[in-house]
Amino acid sequence: xxxxxxxxxxxxxxxxxxxxxxxxxxxxxxxxxxxxxxxxxxxxxxxxxxxxxxxxxxxxxxxxxxxxxxxxxxxxxxxxxxxxxxxxxxxxxxxxxxxxxxxxxxxxxxxxxxxxxxxxxxxxxxxxxxxxxxxxxxxxxxxxxxxxxxxxxxxxxxxxxxxxxxxxxxxxxxxxxxxxxxxxxxxxxxxxxxxxxxxxxxxxxxxxxxxxxxxxxxxxxxxxxxxxxxxxxxxxxxxxxxxxxxxxxxxxxxxxxxxxxxxxxxxxxxxxxxxxxxxxxxxxxxxxxxxxxxxxxxxxxxxxxxxxxxxxxxxxxxxxxxxxxxxxxxxxxxxxxxxxxxxxxxxxxxxxxxxxxxxxxxxxxxxxxxxxxxxxxxxxxxxxxxxxxxxxxxxx
Length: 396
Prior knowledge:
By secondary structure, the chain is an alpha+beta fold. The protein contains nine helices and 19 strands. The chain starts with a strand and ends in a 7-residue tail after the last helix.
């Protein structure tokens, strides 16, 4: 099969050599990430239910989930939720197949409860969350579902990916992940963590916002001491692995003199003031990267069978990573994939690979190897679907 794959040499200053680099990650308890996680978990649950009942994944998209903040009264050694967090589960799903009706609302609500319980350990879903399921009725193109081995693209859209992570990107990603591990030892750490890095030259300035859980803190002095411990842990376990100098600041809006600090009941700002929407947070690789190309498509919640806005963002990242790991003499690799509605998803309208190369590299060899890797992934594109349904690929 001949595909439209183009590999070109990229002449630009690598991100690592640029003066300013900005990178952000919203943690799993951030309201936007909660929306992403709910949407993706419900999509995955629907996939399993459809396959069990009819032998194929029917049309659905759950990527319109919204989180509306509640109200709370946080306090040291306690606090309480005054008004529950409101979650709107929306989108479209196939409810009827032949004579069978599929209980979409029951599946969505059950999955949402399970997901929130697994992510937010200080939330009582029964009391603290209102789950309102308004998923509309969609319909499946049964010919596309059952007759095509490789489905047709649902839209004319594109996905982008790149590799490798810069040092700053790696630090940001690892900092949030480290804090979620550290909370096993320091339960005052909430799941709502946001990490923002600004690298200026050879110094990375790391601004971390971490929702602290009041019932695990005795008083203001305990809060301030715990902050110092968290910063020290980040410096010793994340920053020490970096080549550049890193300055870490935590909860910089705190005003201890007035007693105003980032204290929560549940460990997420969704309890008081912060709303969340699917696609407003991390891109498919888990970061928000202003120095890199990004797609505006929300990856989470879109069906994994033919929604190229999801599949191509993940596929492009897989291709870029494999090129970096297997092709000699490449530096930064950027992959862009464009679909045409109705055309098989393994035959994109364009798959563009841009790469920087080391001086003296044999670019013809780089082109051939990169194109081969892209073709291999397109041949195996259904692997992306399988990994998504198994939860083996992260979408935010």
